[in-house]
Amino acid sequence: MIELCELLKNWPCTAKGGDFRALVSGVTDHSAEVIPGSVFVARKGRSASGLDHIQEALHNGAVAVVTDISRPPALPQGVSAISVPDAADFLAYACSAFYGHPSRELTVFAVTGTNGKTTTTRFIGQLLKACGIRAAVIGTLGVWIDGRKAPLQTPPMTTLPPAHLHRVLRYCADEGVTHIAMEASSLGLSGRRLDHCSIDYGIFLNIGTDHHAEHGGEEAYLRAKGRLSGLAGKIILNADDPAVLSITGNRRPVMTFGERHGGDTHLRIDDDGKGDWVLAAGDALTVIRTPVEGRHNRLNVAAAFASLMAAGFNMSELCRNASCLSLPEGRMQEAEGAGIRVFVDYAHTPDALEAVLSALSSLCTGRLISVFGCGGDRDREKRPQMGRVAGEYSDSVWVTSDNPRSEEPARIISDIMAGLENTPAFVRAETDRERAIRGAIYEAEPGDIVLIAGKGHEEIQISKSSSRPFSDFRTALHFLGEREAESGASGGDSRVQTTDRFWYDGSGME
Predict the structure, then answer these.
(1) Same domain assignment for residues 57 and 200
(2) Cβ–Cβ contacts within 10 Å for residue 318, how many?
(3) Nearest to 378 by CA among 500, 213, 506
(4) Distances (CA, A) of 40 to 153, 213, 323
(5) 157-193: per-residue pLDDT in tens?
């Protein structure tokens, strides 16, 4: 608890009415989260304004309302009306102050990039634990401390809003955590969620195509990513990505990483041609063995190593612990049955899909079969790009629904199909994702690999205004088991047969 006047004393504002000695029980910009004694920050969001929810906040017991408009609305007697220059900026500060600025007590790594944030933060957390450090990982998969899911309720967001973020950081500090690895999404950065969070190291992985529509264009997306360079004390960069170098401006990184050669503060990672990886920093060269596959994960490992080396950890100690690394749920997650290997991966951008398919093609002894779709109400320009990538790497492609949201699945599939037209893959369109996964698994033969891409760890599928439980991995396990049972009962192999290169299920497709 903190007095309202203490919360405001270091912030430019004008205030009137209410009791400035009132004890504040929380700070939030969501009226539904207001409890008696809360400060409600009525900021303008991407699709709604907090001004429209002031009455609900008052009904729930707000003791103060913060706005950044020239004429704030009249409030009941006993409620403080506070005007600040920027409500989003104040929200981030006030949430940090309410919890006693917990980020200042922690060493914080913030990882941004179009692809690889979840994996890299997980790698940082695993390496810290192996080095005897109590660490937390915060991101798409929730909050994890020392490899265990923390008993915390948080919204399903890559980067937590300030009210939740600083509550989590306070919990971590009180639990003896000293280091934090968290994901910094473009939407989180542009929404000021990480402002007034003390970030020691900002890690830039890569820049690809994603969220352009939500930001209003590519330039806005790049600016959002680049904000991390101004928030972090030190930065670590992927020196192989020109876009990363461009968005960080003139800031000099404390470490860089990549597959090209560099100086003493550059960590190079490469394949030694014998199945192991080579790490080189200056004159030091080490061969490491990790249980993860793929060039993209090689770069994620390099990012984690470079980040920890920038923080003072010894390269040789990190290399000794490389065998502890494992991928998060929904990232190259494997199931096997009837001689078929099925991988579930979150890849939902052209770069990510290409990285995963490239990795799997090097493992595949038979055919490579892909199942994927694209989310609705999101960047349409990436849909044909993903179709082209899938068609170039796969022998067979099942195009299906991802999270169609308010869009018609058939329209999304049509956009993807445009990129598949001149590729050699055998292509099918099936709007029902469950049927598409079943079709791909029944099409496969021993030695084939099936990739189910796009949703990864997600447990629901969003369509129109509703959602339903759906897990790619559990669905794959079900059909692998079903196929094995049928094969065992009949002594044969049940397969989906088609005759044309393009096959449609008839659900609105032409």
Answers:
(1) no
(2) 22
(3) 213
(4) 20, 29, 47
(5) 999 999 999 999 999 999 999 999 999 999 999 999 9
- pLDDT band at 211; cut points 50, 70, 90: low
Exposed, middle or buried: residue 47 (CB in 10 Å: 0-12, 13-18, 19+)? exposed
Paired residues of 27 in beta bridges: 39
CATH number at residue 77: 3.40.1390.10
Residues 233, 260, single domain; the answer is yes
What are the residues whose beta carbons fall under 8 Å from the beta carbon of 480, sequence distance 6 or more?
Answer: 335, 336, 337, 338, 340, 342, 441
Phi, psi for residue 201 in degrees, rounded to 5: -135, 125
- The closest of 351, 352, 398, 348 to 375, measured between CA atoms, is 348
pLDDT in tens, 105-138: 999 999 999 889 999 999 999 999 999 999 999 9
Helix (H, G, I), strand (E, B) or coil at 337: strand
Going by C-beta distance under 8 Å and a sequence separation of 6 or more, which residues neighbour residue 312?
none
pLDDT tens figures, 377-430: 888 889 999 999 999 999 999 999 999 999 999 999 999 999 999 999 999 999
What pLDDT does residue 484 have? 86
Residue 154 CA to residue 138 CA, distance in Å, equals 10
Beta bridge partner(s), residue 282: none
CA–CA gap between residue 74 and residue 80 (Å, rounded): 10
Tell which of 324, 349, 380 closes a domain.
324
Q: Give the helix/strand (H/E) hosting 426.
A: strand 426-429
Q: Are residues 304 and 169 in the same domain?
A: yes
Q: Which helix (H) or strand (E) holds 362?
A: helix 350-363
Q: Domain range spanning residue 318? A: 102-324
End-to-end CA distance of the chain: 62
Mean confidence (pLDDT) of the chain: 90
Q: How far is CA 248 from CA 118, 153, 238, 444, in A?
A: 21, 34, 11, 45
Indicate if the pLDDT at residue 510 is higher than 50. no
For the chain, the farthest-separated pair of C-alpha atoms sits apart, in whole angstroms, at: 81
In a domain, 307, yes or no: yes
How many domains is the chain partitioned into structurally? 3
- What is the rounded distance in angstroms from the CA atom of residue 372 to the CA atom of residue 432? 11
The pLDDT tens digits of the residues spanning 275-314 come to: 778 889 887 888 888 778 888 888 999 999 999 999 999 9
88 HSE (CA, 13 A, CB side): 13
Q: Are 121 and 183 in contact (CB under 8 A)?
A: yes
pLDDT in tens, 216-240: 678 888 888 999 999 999 999 999 9
Last residue of a domain, one of 65, 98, 131: 98
